[in-house]
Design goal:
mainly alpha, about 75% helix, globular, transmembrane helix, transmembrane, membrane, ABC-type transporter activity, Permease
Length: about 270
């Protein structure tokens, strides 16, 4: 890692990191503030939810809404969170490598005394730092909203932390393969199309597997299947197994990206 390059890249991207993080935290705070209005009638709401198609309820993690964790999972972590962080992971991964190669900026970086390995490891750490910033702000927003807006006894902070931590691991994996794709292309648009297409395909396979139970098996080919915030909130999630697999996917993808970037011919 090169500290000077890391500081420069963080200065360039920090506003965007905080923009995504603050936006996510504000949405969690808003949803949390609505929870007391619904909590007193949660049983009736849960009964109403049962009239919805089973596939739809599974797709959005709405099988049961009997506590805060399941509520926030259904309202945010089961849909919007996945879309927002998916866009962030793909976009920043492409900006940190493929865009620099496409625009010739990578040539200036590699013409210095900083080695290729240090350059690509630094770019990787910038991307992971962005994910950490967003998840810390999101968790802090939810925890503070719970502290000041509702009775904290109603909230299981451990499960809420696990929902965010497993989510971070999921997008460590998503950003990992996006970063790998970014290292393979010289053209920013092509890299974005492939990384975005793969992520959309994985997301779609996960949703289709939930909606159509006959093809539930296709979910096992996508990392999104390892993130089930509703089950984590109810204490039924396989948190440790999911975390280990997602971290392995992320580390393997980032490691392969570093190796390939060191060896490939770049248009410098």
């Amino acid at each position: 890692m090169n500290l000077a390059l890391y500081r420069h890249m963080m200065q360039l991207h920090l506003k965007m990191f905080f923009g995504f993080g603050v936006g996510s935290a504000m949405y969690v705070t808003l949803i949390t503030s609505l929870y007391p209005l619904l909590d007193d009638n949660m049983e009736q709401i849960d009964d109403m939810m049962q009239i919805l198609p089973e596939g739809m309820m599974r797709a959005f993690g709405m099988e049961s809404i009997s506590n805060y964790g399941q509520f926030i999972s259904a309202e945010y972590y089961g849909l919007f969170y996945l879309l927002i962080l998916g866009v962030f992971s793909v976009m920043v991964a492409i900006q940190l490598v493929a865009r620099l190669v496409d625009r010739g900026s990578m040539a200036y970086l590699l013409s210095t005394q900083v080695s290729r390995t240090k350059v690509i490891v630094t770019q990787m750490l910038v991307l992971i730092s962005g994910l950490i910033v967003i998840h810390v702000l999101t968790f802090a927003g939810g925890a503070l909203a719970a502290r000041f807006l509702i009775d904290t006894d109603r909230i299981a902070l451990t499960e809420f932390f696990q929902i965010n931590y497993v989510g971070f691991c999921l997008f460590l994996a998503v950003s990992g393969y996006s970063f790998l794709i970014s290292c393979l292309f010289n053209d920013e648009k092509n890299a974005f199309a492939v990384a975005g297409g793969v992520t959309f395909l994985f997301y779609g396979m996960n949703m289709m597997g939930k909606i159509v139970t006959k093809i539930d098996w296709i979910r096992h080919f996508t990392p999104f299947s390892l993130y089930e915030p509703g089950k984590i909130a109810s204490g039924e999630g396989e948190v440790l197994v999911s975390v280990i697999i997602l971290i392995l996917i992320g580390l393997l993808s980032y490691g392969l990206a570093i190796v390939l970037f060191r060896k490939r011919n770049l248009p410098l």
